[in-house]
Amino acid sequence: MAARHDLTTDPRLQEELLQARRGTAFFARKLNELTDAELDGGTLLPDWNRRHVIAHVGYNARAIARLVEWAATGVETPMYPSAEARNQEINFGATLSPIALRNLFDHSAVHLSVEWRDLPEANWANEVRTAQGRNVLATETVWMRTREVWIHSIDLANGATFNDIPTTVLERLLGDITSAWKTRGTDTGLLIKVTNTAGNGTDLTLGDTTATDPTIITGPLPAVVEWATGRGRNGIAALGAATATVPAAPTWI
Ligand code: ZN
């Protein structure tokens, strides 16, 4: 019989599940604020309208649910058969009727939540593989989904901002992004200083901390993350030698 509560008793994981579900509820709220006609409108992503974003978020839940099922059964079920199949699926999803598109989001989100809920404690330590080929523990699927729902709710471009994202999520996001830059060596000479203007969260220094004369990107946490994800330059400043304007952030994904 299915459980009515999450089987995991790990408080940290429970907190992470809460953030993922809150993000999902937030995305649902922004989606519900859009009329059917507005689904055709543009987003913060260059080639995607809202239909593409909604389809992607729905199929992403299904793909992540496949990883949770993999952790549950030991039977390898990848997120997507291939990158092409993933993109084709999104393009197809974008052509669905508004009601079908909304159902795709709702049903896939509920399904994923149930897969997480019913995953036994021990299985959360099982390894699965992401679409990028990274081997991760099943616990990572919670964070993978958290990033998606929060960021893409902003991409819907109907009022959500990075200020809506919880501080702990923003901090982890910035950590992910700057470590991806470091791995690729694209952060050379770029120092990120987050100022704690809101009184919550901490002052953070990330990026190329060994540079002698770095370009310093500074601002409050939501603005820095907005910039780091390539979604805007509001509220941040660039300091340092030969820097008059804020440069574009290195590519993240
Ligand atoms: Zn995405």
Tally of DSSP helical segments: 7
Biggest beta sheet attributes: 4 strands, mixed
Order of helix and strand elements from N to C terminus: HHHHEEHHEEEHE
**How many strands appear in the DSSP assignment?**
6
Report what the structure shows:
The structure is a single chain. It contains seven helices and six strands, in the order ααααββααβββαβ. α1 runs antiparallel to α4. The chain has helices at 11-32, 50-73, 83-93, 98-117, 140-155, 167-184, 221-228; strands at 127-129, 135-137, 190-195, 204-207, 215-220, 237-239. The longest helix is centred in the N-terminal third of the chain and has 24 residues, at 50-73. The model has no long low-confidence stretch (mean pLDDT 93). With 253 residues, it is an alpha+beta fold. It starts with 10 loop residues before the first helix and ends in a 14-residue tail after the last strand. The strands form two sheets. The protein has a four-stranded mixed beta sheet with strand order 4-3-5-6. It has a two-stranded antiparallel sheet with strand order 1-2. The chain is globular, with a radius of gyration of 19 Å. The chain folds into two domains: 11-160, Up-down Bundle (Four Helix Bundle (Hemerythrin (Met), subunit A)), CATH 1.20.120.450; 167-239, Nonspecific Lipid-transfer Protein, Chain A, CATH 3.30.1050.20. Helices cover 47% and strands 10% of the residues. A hairpin with an 8-residue loop joins β3 (190-195) and β4 (204-207). Zinc ion binds next to α2 and α5.
